[in-house]
Write a structure and sequence with these properties.
Blueprint (H helix, E strand, L loop, with lengths): L7 E12 L2 E13 L4 E5 L6 H8 L7 E6 L2 E2 L5 H10 L1 E4 L11 H11 L4 H14 L15 H13 L5 E5 L7 H18 L2 E5 L3 H6 L2 E6 L2 E7 L8
Bound molecules: adenosine-5'-triphosphate (ATP).
Length: about 240
């Protein structure tokens, strides 16, 4: 794979939703390239298309028109099996609701995904503990989600997202349910994963402090990209 090629390339993406008589234009001819290793925020008013764009890039939803290439693979040309594989191995997802399985411990929540990926139990345990250590939670590996704070649950969700070693993480309002201290910790973790491991992040957010942490700031309006600028990142104050 040629690393000078973008990790994400979107061409003329459009997505419409039909509600009764009316048509909602969620994405309107979006063109977007994101290079390997970028740290990007996506902001804009509610309904401007951020989630729709992330879901399309992550292969969770198909656009009506246009093309998406992720790590050199055209999503519209992949079989559903190949798309599921790409989602499982190459893209990490982090959501506003942490989406952990309540009856499983932190370690089991992380290793569950690797089980689906076909790793042995010993490999899973080793890898789960390594990624929990990466997010600062190896000493909480045996706790269930209800025994963890919101910030800790979100960090378990990050450990799960990076367990398979993806080069791309898509995060949809990851700090929306967090207090400002936990949000700052999460953004420091994202920054470290970006700088030290080269993981590309695209983060949809309404929080101006999250936008300020990133090195490229994209705003959307009415399903279109409105502004797109590089910036000097400003770490979030705890
Ligand atoms: N499954 C759906 N069915 C109908 N309309 C939808 C669906 N998903 C999204 N939309 C509409 O598409 C538009 C874009 O929605 P989207 O969720 O992408 O916006 P957003 O910028 O992420 O908003 P928010 O900041 O509130 O999360 C909105 O008008 C929304 O109501």
């Amino acid at each position: 794979m040629n690393n000078s090629a973008p990790i994400i390339a979107c061409r003329q993406l459009s997505r419409h939703f039909h509600q009764g008589e009316s048509t909602i234009v969620a994405l309107d001819n979006v063109d977007l390239d994101v290079a390997f290793g970028e740290f990007v925020s996506l902001s804009g008013p509610s309904g401007s298309g951020k989630t729709t764009l992330l879901n399309a890039i992550g292969g969770l939803d198909r656009p009506d028109k246009g093309q998406i290439t992720v790590e050199g693979q055209r999503l519209d040309q992949l079989s559903s099996n190949a798309l599921a594989k790409l989602r499982l191995h190459s893209i990490g997802f982090v959501f506003q609701a942490y989406n952990l399985i309540p009856v499983l411990t932190a370690e089991e929540n992380v290793s569950f995904v690797m089980q689906v990926q076909g790793m042995s139990a010993a490999q899973r345990r080793e890898r789960a503990l390594a990624v929990l250590q990466e997010v600062g939670l190896d000493d909480h590996a045996d706790r269930r989600p209800a025994e963890l704070s919101g910030g800790q649950q979100q960090r378990v969700a990050v450990a799960r997202a990076i367990a398979s070693g993806p080069r791309l993480v898509l995060a949809d309002e990851p700090t929306a349910n967090l207090d400002s201290h936990s949000a700052a910790e999460l953004m420091a973790l994202f920054t470290r994963l970006n700088e030290q491991h080269g993981i590309t992040f695209v983060i949809a957010t309404h929080d101006p402090r999250v936008m300020a942490c990133t090195t490229r700031r994209i705003t959307m309006i009415d399903g279109r990209i409105d502004t797109d600028r590089p910036q000097e990142p400003r770490p979030m104050e705890p």
